[in-house]
Design brief:
single chain, 447 residues, alpha/beta, OB fold (Dihydrolipoamide Acetyltransferase, E2P), Rossmann fold, Ubiquitin-like (UB roll), 4 domains, six-stranded mixed sheet, 17 strands, 30% helix, binds iron/sulfur cluster
Length: 447
């Protein structure tokens, strides 16, 4: 029996690239590497314009006591400049622009861990993961070392999120098929770090080939089990995943660790393994390039910092004029304004859509009180009320109606026959509520 949750939606899958092997993108001429690709404090540049850098060299660092990760160069070459640019999330941060010398001169600091896994302590594992700059590669970009630290002593199982429930994206699916051993070895390292003995690999049942491969590779393992999930959106949301697998609900404001679980993305596990086996920091990732404007959709292994235009060109260019560029999936991803935006550690997909996909066919968005958004909300909210309160600026009522519990999955907007951009209104309310709370906390701190 496949595991599932209540609510959610069945979206058209558009997994056009499910059979596209991961291809390595030719080396980019220039990379533009943001110094903040993680939740927490941005890194501070440790290089200056004109300096020569090696492949994998640290180019930005965050003080030990702060939440954040170092950032490394994904090419060898010369730092051209350090400029302020806008991230896919909208924040403005420093980016290190490096001209690739095409020599791939490796950083001399990159070395594998020479101890056996059984002889490595939790502290050593955490330190390797932090130094490698590994973050949640499913999109959240939370520093992995901090996730391990916050879960230590609280969890009894880890869950590997391989649901990949967003339409179009197949990057994780291909990784599981082509590099399953890297994912499984990464899981073993994470189990050792956390001192737990149970790992569940959660895969949606629309990936039978990946399920078969993982079951074959884990059949002798007493610790690692493959769990088959029903294909439904948003199965990959951590709250839905935990509910589906354990029947436990995570209260608002609490974390998976509060119900004994910690969740890692499949590519994050592979990155952990690469950091151990080769000493490689987080400098590349698999990206699905798709959408009806892309001539030849592909899965690509891409150096972090590569401009999106390089990916599009390698995929044969544009089939038609794009209406929308999205970083991430079409449901939870972010629309972008800069075609030169660089790939970051958490860019799972780059999608280019024409008006057919990108524009709602409604002139004046109007709620017709059909209740569909309520029926499909996996968090059991009343999205239309939260959206309406947000629209009129009544954020207190929006909060009373559970705005902060919204996981921004977009199931409500997807199904709304009135064309109401429900999730956008809820995002506005959440941002306003957070700002107000921060203001009150600052006032209290001054008293
Ligand atoms: S789905 Fe749209 S039209 Fe229906 S109740 Fe919700 S907001 Fe209103
Ligand atoms: S209200 Fe939030 S959690 Fe509920 S369906 Fe809409 S976006 Fe998803």
């Amino acid at each position: 029996m496949a595991y599932t949750f209540s609510g959610g939606i069945h979206v058209e899958e558009y997994k056009n690239t499910r059979k596209c092997r991961i291809e390595t993108l030719p080396p980019p001429k220039t990379v533009i590497i943001p110094l903040s690709q993680h939740i927490g404090a941005p890194a501070v540049a440790t290089v200056i314009p004109g300096e020569e850098v090696t492949l994998g060299q640290k180019i930005g660092n965050v003080a030990e006591e702060m939440l954040g990760c170092p950032v490394h160069s994904s090419v060898s070459g010369k730092v051209r400049e350090i400029v302020k640019k806008t991230l896919p999330t909208g924040a403005s941060v420093d980016h290190v622009v490096i001209e690739n010398d095409m020599k791939d001169t490796p950083c001399p600091d990159i070395k594998p861990i020479e101890k056996k896994l059984t002889d490595v302590s939790t502290e050593e594992i955490v330190s390797v993961i932090r130094e490698a700059g590994i973050v949640g590669m499913g999109g959240a970009a939370f520093p992995t070392y901090a996730k391990i630290n916050s879960a230590l002593g609280k969890v009894n199982r880890i869950i590997i999120n391989c649901a990949e429930c967003e339409p179009f994206i197949t990057a994780n699916h291909r990784l599981l098929l082509e590099h399953p051993a890297s994912v499984i070895n990464g899981i073993k390292i994470l189990l050792k770090a956390l001192g737990v003995h149970t790992a569940w690999i959660a895969v949606e049942d629309n990936k039978p080939d990946a399920i078969e491969k993982l079951e074959e590779l884990t059949e002798d393992s007493r610790m690692i089990t493959v769990k088959v999930m029903k294909t439904k959106y948003p199965q990959g949301d951590e709250r839905q995943l935990i509910y589906a697998l354990t029947g436990q609900e995570i209260p608002t404001g609490k974390l998976p660790a509060d119900v004994g679980c910690v969740i890692f993305n499949a590519e994050t596990c592979a990155a952990v393994y690469k950091a151990f086996a080769n000493g490689t920091p987080s400098i590349s990732r698999v990206v699905t390039v798709d959408g009806d404007c892309i001539k030849r959709p592909k899965n690509l292994l891409v150096p972090v910092g590569t401009p999106v235009t390089d990916l599009v060109e390698f995929c044969g260019g544009l089939a038609k004029g794009p209406y929308k560029l999205v970083s991430g999936g079409p449901m939870m991803g972010m629309a972008q304004w800069d075609p030169e935006m660089p790939v970051t550690k958490s860019t799972s997909a780059v999608l280019l859509f024409s008006e057919r996909f990108g524009k709602k066919n409604v002139k004046v968005p109007t709620c017709i009180h059909c209740g569909r958004c309520v029926n499909h909300c996996p968090m059991h909210l009343m999205p239309m009320y939260i959206a309406q309160f947000s629209k009129i600026g009544d954020f207190t009522r929006a909060e009373e109606y559970g705005a902060m519990s919204c996981v921004e999955c977009g199931s409500c907007s997807y199904n709304c026959p009135g064309g109401v951009e429900i999730v956008q209104h809820i995002r506005v309310a959440k941002a306003a509520i957070k700002t107000e709370k921060a203001r009150l906390a600052a006032l209290n701190a001054q008293k």
